[in-house]
Specification:
3 helices
Length: 88
């Protein structure tokens, strides 16, 4: 009796999955969601994994004097900078 109930539940679950994911309108929705996920992943992983390095104040002043920075910004009590690209 218990096994029969489990089998019916499995069949109901399979029907629900088919309706949700294999309906023609839902396939389009899944494709759109995958595309947006891919775009989001590519855009924000560059920002998340961007290399950051902390330096001492005297190193920072030396780099300013050497002209090593392209841009320096201050926000919320934190100074950040963008280094100039080195020509190779």
């Amino acid at each position: 009796m218990e096994e029969l109930k489990k089998e019916k539940d499995k069949q109901k679950f399979k029907k629900i999955i088919k309706i949700l994911f294999f309906n023609s309108g839902n396939i389009f929705l899944v494709i759109i969601l995958l595309a947006f996920s891919f775009i989001f992943f590519r855009k924000y992983t560059k920002i998340i994994f961007k290399r950051k390095k902390e330096i001492t104040y005297s190193q920072f002043i030396d780099k300013i004097n050497n002209g090593d920075f392209k841009e320096i910004t201050e926000k919320d009590n934190e100074i950040s900078s963008k280094s100039k690209k080195k020509k190779r």
